[in-house]
Specification:
By secondary structure, the protein is an alpha/beta fold. The chain contains eleven helices and 19 strands. The protein has three domains: 238 residues, Metallo-dependent phosphatases (Purple Acid Phosphatase, chain A, domain 2, 4-Layer Sandwich), CATH 3.60.21.10; 71 residues, Translation Initiation Factor IF3; 74 residues, no CATH class. 34% of the residues lie in helices and 25% in strands. Strands 5, 6, 7, 8, 9, 10, 11 and 12 form an eight-stranded mixed beta sheet that branches. A six-stranded mixed beta sheet has the order 4-3-2-1-15-16, covered by helices on one side. A five-stranded mixed beta sheet has the order 14-13-17-18-19, covered by helices on one side. The structure holds manganese (II) ion.
């Protein structure tokens, strides 16, 4: 048994507001699919974030259809779960559309029973768990969930025989501290499985749990400067460090093998100098070491104010694209406007996305999302229960929490 494990494809991501970057993301996935086909895999798994947004534009949908059709033509079934970026609380998601086109199978808890060549359903409580089947192996998974939803959902994700567990969550023991990412679950919460096909962490990570592997193949393209192909630090002297490899995993008998895919180079360059002339000299030196097709993300720390426009021109003369961030030493202001991605967390970005589309339906969706995120319904029930027990203090506490929630949402709406 041999399968491809993809994750965090982020189709449609116009990184740095560049439409051609979305093409890079599409090409990375198409190349990955090509390799998977040539490797003659039995099936493929997409562990969430196939799309960058839950409402992909037509071009992005077309890219997804093209890539998935190639797998279909080669009789390779695809099993997928929705990630935090592309999950939808609407009745029908982009994944459901692809499913109706026969291009993938959506795994997870659903209202309706689904039966097919490669999927079956089991009843769990008042819903169905839709799982993939390949010979004697079950492919079990569910879309991205909040931490408290996971506590309820994880115990349902079990199998009697051989199985693969597909999730889009951060596992505490695998997440790097310097990623500044929260975690959703710990290893001891995981149900038994023979392979853990994960998504969400964009760097390639493999963790052995006994004899089993828990794997994040990482995103298929370079999602931000933490995933640069090379890192340059130029303080006293120039230091260079190799960056991240991008790709996916081919898994044979539950053992992963990382397969690299060629991507556009993205350089993370840090320059630290007292004088602005030194900055320019150092930057020019680095520029001559990198490919012209590349993107550079440049951080400059200098005691003098630099000519950012001149630095950007120098960069664009040689490179496809550059982002320049300047920070004056000991002064805590950044000359560049902070982007939304840096300012808001994932949940807030998702909420913004829905609200920007406008319309009553989306307002409802937004409210649902807020409820889901802050688990307001269950909190309300908890408040009810506590009232019966007569614990007024706790009720007050919950009210305060709710007020906090409301305040936060209001700030966000104000921004919109
Ligand atoms: Mn992702």
């Amino acid at each position: 048994m041999k399968f491809a494990h993809f994750a965090d494809v982020h189709l449609g991501y116009e990184q740095y507001n560049l439409p051609w970057r979305a093409e890079d993301f599409a090409n990375a996935f198409k190349n990955a699919v090509k390799i998977a086909i040539s490797e003659k895999v039995d099936f493929a798994i997409i562990a969430g974030d196939l799309f960058h947004r839950s409402v992909p534009n037509p071009k992005t949908l077309n890219d997804a259809i093209e890539a998935l059709s190639a797998l279909k033509e080669n009789e390779i079934p695809v099993f997928a779960i929705e990630g935090n970026h592309d999950k939808s609380i609407r009745e029908m998601s982009a994944y459901n559309l692809l499913e109706n086109l026969g291009l993938l199978n959506v795994l997870g808890l659903r209202k309706e029973r689904i039966e097919g060549d490669n999927v079956t359903s089991v009843r769990v409580e008042n819903v169905y768990l839709v799982k993939g089947v390949y010979k004697d192996v079950e492919i079990i998974g569910d879309k991205h969930r909040t931490r408290w939803q996971l506590e309820k959902v994880l115990p349902l994700m079990k199998s009697d025989g051989k199985s693969i567990l597909v999730l889009h969550q951060a596992v505490k023991e695998v997440v790097d501290v310097d990623l500044e990412m929260g975690w959703d679950l710990t290893i001891d919460q995981l149900p038994e499985a023979d392979y853990y096909a994960f998504g969400h962490v964009h760097l390639h990570r493999e963790k052995k749990i006994g004899e089993r592997y828990l794997v994040y193949p990482g995103s298929t393209e370079r999602y931000d400067s933490r995933e640069a192909s090379s890192f340059f630090f130029y303080g006293e002297k120039l230091e260079k460090r190799e960056g991240e490899r991008k790709g996916f995993c081919i898994v044979e008998n539950f053992k992963p093998r990382f397969v690299e895919i060629e991507t556009r180079d993205l350089y993370a360059i840090s320059i630290d100098s007292e004088k602005k002339v030194e900055v320019e000299k150092k930057f020019l030196e680095v520029l001559h070491m990198i490919k012209s097709s590349a993107i550079a993300v440049v951080k400059i720390i200098c005691s003098e104010t630099i000519d950012s426009k001149k630095i950007l021109e120098m960069a664009l003369n040689r490179l496809k694209h550059a982002e320049i961030n300047f920070k004056r030493r000991e002064v805590e202001t950044i000359s560049k406007f902070v982007s939304e991605n840096e300012f808001f967390n994932e949940f807030e970005m998702k909420l913004l996305e829905i609200l920007r589309e406008g319309g009553d339906v989306n307002i409802k969706s937004a409210i649902e999302l807020v409820k889901e995120h802050f688990s307001i319904e269950s909190e309300a029930k908890a408040v009810e229960a506590k009232t019966i027990e007569g614990k007024e203090e706790l009720v007050q506490e919950r009210r305060e929490e709710r007020k906090e929630v409301k305040k936060r949402v209001k700030t966000l709406l104000d921004f919109v």
